C-alpha cells in the first residue's frame, strides 16, 4: 500500500496512488506470467528492463510503495537489474546518479 504519510503530506495524490498500484500490479503480473526468466522479456534484459529501471528505483527510493512486501517480484527484478555488471559499469562510467538531487514535486491539487 502507498505510505499514508505521503498522501497526508500531499506528496502523492490519492488518485495517483491508486493508479500507481494498478500499474505495479500489472508489471508484477507480467513478470510472473510473462516469458520464462527473471526479466520482462525472458531470460535476458531488454528495452523494458532498461526503461523501467529509473522509475522503479525512484518509487523505491521515495518509499511511495514498499516493493519488498507488496510487489516482491518487482523488488527481486530491481535487485537483479542493479546487480548486473553492465548496470554497475554504467554507473561508474557516468559517475552514478543521485536520486536526492531530483526535485520532490508535491501535488497542489485538492480532491
Number of domains: 1
* Fraction in helix: 55-70%
CATH class: Mainly Alpha
Largest sheet: none
The N- and C-terminal alpha carbons lie at a distance of: 20 Å
**CATH topology-level name:** Glutathione S-transferase Yfyf (Class Pi), Chain A, domain 2
- Beta-strand percentage? under 5%
What is the N-to-C order of secondary-structure elements (H for helix, E for strand)? Answer: HHHHHH
Broad shape: flat
**Computed Rg:** 15 Å
Question: Regions with pLDDT < 50 over 5+ consecutive residues?
Answer: 107-111
| Total DSSP E strands | 0
Derived from helix and strand composition plus strand pairing, the structural class reads mainly alpha
**Overall residue-averaged pLDDT value:** 82
The count of helical stretches stands at: 6
**CATH architecture term:** Up-down Bundle
Task: Explain this structure.
- The chain is mainly alpha-helical.
- The chain has a single domain (4-97), classed as Glutathione S-transferase Yfyf (Class Pi), Chain A, domain 2 (Up-down Bundle), CATH 1.20.1050.10.
- Helix content is 59%, strand content 0%.
- It has six helices and no strands.
- Helix 2 (14-33) crosses helix 5.
- The longest helix is centred in the N-terminal third of the chain and has 20 residues, at 14-33.
- It is flat.
- 12% of the residues are buried.
- Residues 107-111 have low confidence and may be disordered.
